[in-house]
Structures are given as C-alpha cells and as structure tokens.
Task: structure prediction
Amino acid sequence: MPYRPPLVAHENFVADPPDLPTRRPGEGGLSTLVRADVVATDAQGVTLKGATSGGETLAVQVSVAGEGIIRVRLSQDTDARTRSAKAITLVHPGSYPGARVDLNGGVVRVHAGSAVAEITLDPWHLRFLDRAGRILTDQNGGEYDISGRMRTLPFGRSSVDGAVVAYHESFTARPDERFVGLGEKFTPLDKRGQRALMWNYDAFGSESDRSYKNVPMYLSSRGYGLLVDSGMPVEFDICQSTHSCLQIVVPDDLIDYYLLAGPTPAEVLNRYNQLTGRPMLPPKWAFGTWISSGFTVDTQEKVLERARRLRAGRIPADVLHLDCYWQVAGHWSDLGWDRENFPDPDGMIATLTQQGFKVGLWLNPYLSHLSPTFPHAAAAGHLLRRPDGSVYVADVWHGTHPPCGIIDFTNPQAVEWFSGLLRRLLEQGISVFKTDFAEGVPADAVAANGMTGVQLHNVYTLLFNDTVSRVTQEMVGHGMVWARSSYLGGQRHAAQWSGDVNSSYPAMASNLRGGLSHGLAGVPFWSHDVGGFTGTPSPELYARWAQFGALSPLVRFHGTTSRLPWEFPEFAAEIAVDALRLRYRLMPYIYSVAVESARTGVPMMRALLVDSPDDPAAWTAELEYRLGADLLVAPMVDPEGSRHVYLPSGDWVDYWTGAVHSGPRYHRMSKPLEQVPLFVRYGALIPLAPLAETLSEAPFTDVTVVSYGAVDGRTVIRDTDGDTTVSAVRSGDRFEVTVDGPKPVRRIAFAAVDGATLPREVRINGAVTALSTVDGRLTAESR
Result:
C-alpha cells in the first residue's frame, strides 16, 4: 500500500528520538523501592541499600550539594554516572558546612539549611521540607486503578526483556500547584497537564511542543525547583497521565536529581547557577541592534549599502550579521568566503569597523558533502560515523540543501581543526558567530569517544557552543555566541534566540511564551527574530514585533525576507526606528538589568511570578513580562490593538500617558500602533542616556534619572565602571537625592504622572539644583 500522510500534520526529522521499549500485556519489569537500610552516613549525607518490589537491591544516596540543595541518586551501584558524562559534566555539586544527618529510629533526616530530606526506611518514603517544616514535595508511592493496576511510576526502575530501560521518580502534585521551566517551551507557561520530552529538536517554528532548547529543571509554585542530571531524553509527565502526580522517566544508568529550595524563584535560580554555572554577560555592544542580511543571497556590495543607509538614517545599530550566504551555497558550513560575492572581505570588515559596526557571521556544525573540505574532514575522522564505520551523511536541512557530515566534537583533533577555521575569521576582524542548528545528531550515530547518537544528542550543542565560545574568547576577549539550541548549563552561552518563528501574531505570542519559559530555566540573555523568521510580516505586525524586540534582552532583525526598516511602508519603519531609539535611551537601565542577571541568574525578561511568587495569577500571566523590576511590557499580540494586561500588586504608570493603574488585577488596554503597552512601577527611578547610534564599552555618561511619582525610590546603575546607587527621599516639597558610586548623576527629571505632586526643591548629594522644564518634564540639574 502506498504511504499516506497522517491526517494530523507531523514533522519527521533525521534526528528524531527513539521510542522507549514497551512491556507486553502481563509482562513484569516494574521495580519500586519498598524499604531501605542505612549503610553509611557522614556530615553531608547518607548511603542506603534499597530493596525493590522486584527483589532487586539498589543503591540510594541522599546528600547535601550546597545550602538549600539536596541530591538524590538511585542506581545499581554508587559509582554510576549519566551516560552523557563521557563527553561533558553537566552539574557540579558542592557542599554545605552546616549540613547534618539525624537518625531517629526508622527515620533519617538530611539537613541542608533551607531544605530537609526526610526518609522513612520501612516502608520507604521520601519527602522534602523547608526550614520551618513545611512540606515542599513528597514522593508518590504509586496510584492504582480499580483493577489493581499501577497508574504511576514510583521511585524505582523498569526493565523490558530483562534489560533495564529507565529509572523513574514520582511526586504528588498539590491541587493548586503550578510548574514552570524545562527550557524554551512554546506551550502554555504553566506546564501542568503537559508531557515534556528533553530532546533538542529542529522545532520548525514556535507553535508546537518541539523545543530547540531543553533544560531538565522545573520550578514549583510551592517554593522549590527540581533538576535532573542527565543528557538522555528525560521525560516529565506533569500531571498529564494523572492529575495528582508528576512523573519523571530517565532512560539512563541511574536517576540523579537535585531538590533546590526557594522559597522564591530567584533563590531557586541562584542555586541552579551554583550547580551549573553563572550566565555569561555579553559585551555591552551586544545589547544594541543586530541587523541581519536575512536568509537570502547576499553580497559585499549589499552589506556596505545596508551599513551606509543605517548610518545615513541615524538608525541605532551595533551589529551587522551576515547569514548563510557569506559562504558558497551548497558548501555550508565549511567557513570559507564566497569570493565571487565577497571579493574583499578584509576591506569590507575594515570599512564596517570604521563605521562603528561589529560584524557577525553565521555557521553551523555541519559540513556539506559537496564542499571541497569534506574529503579531508571525513578522512581525518572529524565527522560522526554510522555503526558500520562509514561517515554519517545526514539530511539535516530537511531536503532543502545538500546532506551533510556532522562535526564530531568528542574528537580533540576535530575540535582543533574546527577552531583553526574560526581563528582565521576572527583574525580578519569578525566579532561574533551565530551558532545555528546542532539539534541534528541522529540516534544511531557513533562518536569518536564511543558515545551513541542518543547519548550525545542533547549535549552536542554544549560541545559545539563551548568550542566557538572558547575560541572567540581567546581571540577577541569575549565568549559570546548567538545560539539556537542549548541544554542544561547552556546559560554560559549568551545569547540564545528562539529559532525559525513564523511571521504571524500567534507565532509572536508563542515565541514570547518560549522566552519566558527559557528564562525560568536559568537563561537570561534571550532574543528572537523581529518580524518572525519564516514569511513576510504585514507592516503592522512588523511594527508591533519591533516594539517587542526593542524591549527584549537583545534585539535582532532577521528573516527569510528583508527586515530592513526601509523595505516597509514609512509609517511602519518610523515606528520600528522609534522603538529602537527608546531602547538606546533606556540602555543604562537595560544594561543594569543585564549585569544583575549575570550575577544572580534572574532573567532580564521575566515572567511576573519571579517578582510576585505569592500571586497565583502571576503564575499564569504568559503574554507579558517585567524587564527588570521596574518596567512591565505587554507586547500587542492582537492585530486589533487591544488586549488584557495583568498588573501585579502596586501602582503602575502608563509610560505614554502618565495614567496610573492599580494592581493586582487585569486591565483592558487599547493602544495605537505607535505605542506598545509599557508600564513603569510607581516610585521607580529609571536611568536614561542621551540618544546614540552605537554603544561603547565605556561607562555611560550624562545620565538622567527619571522619577515616576516624585516619591521615595532607589535604583542601582550597573556599568563597566561599577555600581552606582541612587536613592531618593521625599520630604514635603523637598526631594533629596543621594548618589553613591563612581557615576556622576547631575540631572533628575520627573515624569508626568497623574496625581503626582512635583517638588519645589531638589537636592543632589546635599547641593541645591536648578529647576527647569525639559521635554515637558520638570528637570533638576546640579549647578
């Protein structure tokens, strides 16, 4: 019978995950822990010998991996490690001097300061408590249906045909508990009712449950997080199979997870960073506008003309990105210039540098079999292979471009060869690389270090981006990349963007969900393609998306067709450029938020629940975000120009009108095309810079601090010269400002806010200022 496609659209890819084997009806193989005996204890934890329902003996280890961090391992023996450890170490556990272990009869308690693990030995049960004794979460021992069949997978492991296929764990979910995180998930922000597979896909957009970036870590509204240390295709069944249970299936040689105490999401993310590394702060210029050639044929002449028009139009921009076609079409990605279209790349780069641009180049970790470089790479062992030893030539481009070999980053010689190609480009003056793809390792591939494709698939992107980041750091002094795929610990690769999003309002909305989700998985420096990638946006959508982009952590204009402002009607172009100018004026604020994110792991673009964790509505508000603590952005995702906006507790000032809206509650907002719904926290102090066309690594100068409400406030301006704290105290008609730090702040302005009473006297560090009206605002300036 000829093949007939399914009625429901489904994408197939050369690197789709294998299915776990299934048991036949009536077949055994499910082993759950039923009791345990203490084998050894020390100050940091306990080792136990566990007995299972299948008559097996397994090793259980519960230990302290840091203050507020408890590690749980279940394995055949205590030396077991995740299979991905052959290539990379994902988690780096620490210790806690205040840890202790208490044994009291049949109960063992492991204390980690803010979290406690309480173990009942017989029958086996494990639960986690906070410092005050409140239950954070506890194991689900198994749920049975009316026929006596188990409906969940409790703490234990499963076998098929006598071979162990997976370890698993289950937790009882409270009726009102919500779960977020797990990477860049384009599905609803609250993951309850979803099943998430940790497998990096070429996601074909942002409107399915496929993800370019997976992070096996979630946060709970009950004030904790949970991280699984495995590079294998871990599955999180978050109350989908049964609404009262969260189940984790780990097809690995053990289950190894960490309970991260809160109680706030910020504290959970901080502890996650302690285990997996701090985010890397991009260079300051990276927060400027990135203008891309787009996924279209490009030439040196076109690049220079783009640069000329950007500067002539005084459009703020810092990075010119050259996508695939800087290389010879059909040879991607052998990292060689197309000398026909780019006859003098050195001269071009020199000209762009003189104009104040950084130049970025596209690449991916694949090598076309048609490239002249391919025979050497294949013969030298630089490419992944098939089980029969032949080079794996895979359809990583879905039939649109030639099949490719895949660089084997487990081979040190391949890493050095690839690094040499990058060094040559960086020596020419290239500033940064876009590290595209890396989700394409087939399940049956074989690596030089013996890993299978399944074992390598998820962590491959980390090896790829580590290589590019390391060489970039070595050559130009920063380790930034612009990555599409990522995995556990990938916050060290700044920045990341959301991939090949469709040009539509629904896609923009799901794209926003993905960014918020990824931020809650510890990645603060995230971006997206303004206008969407696939297709051509309407002028109105282009304008709305430009507003969203300008108020995102980083902003790039890129797509399958031009996203240059002058390619759109004048009204849309003006709105897009005005949005960028607003961004550049806000840059002291934006960069301050970025520095804070790098230090703490709290995302720049954060879901409302980060700052309002005790507000149940904040855990479901998914089409808006706070950019730092003081700005709230609600991108207009409705073509009609009207939407509901949830405002958290407190008063919020409409940036455009000065109207004050109170929270916590939803408001219906309608905005003309030239205005994005943007709100400022009442009482905030927002630092602004004069309008500029480019950014410098030098500290911001001539900063104006704007008060919203003329009341007490405080802000910290974080810059390359250090932290400067600005504090304001209102006393009657006097407004006292104290500046503490290296940055001179000599100007205070007062936004027009409904109902706010402006002061008659303003002092900065005790000195009386001169008052005047500038741009419609009362402004005080040091004499």
Observations:
- The chain has a mean pLDDT of 96.
- The two ends are 87 Å apart (CA to CA).
- Residues 43 and 100 are 5 Å apart (CA to CA).
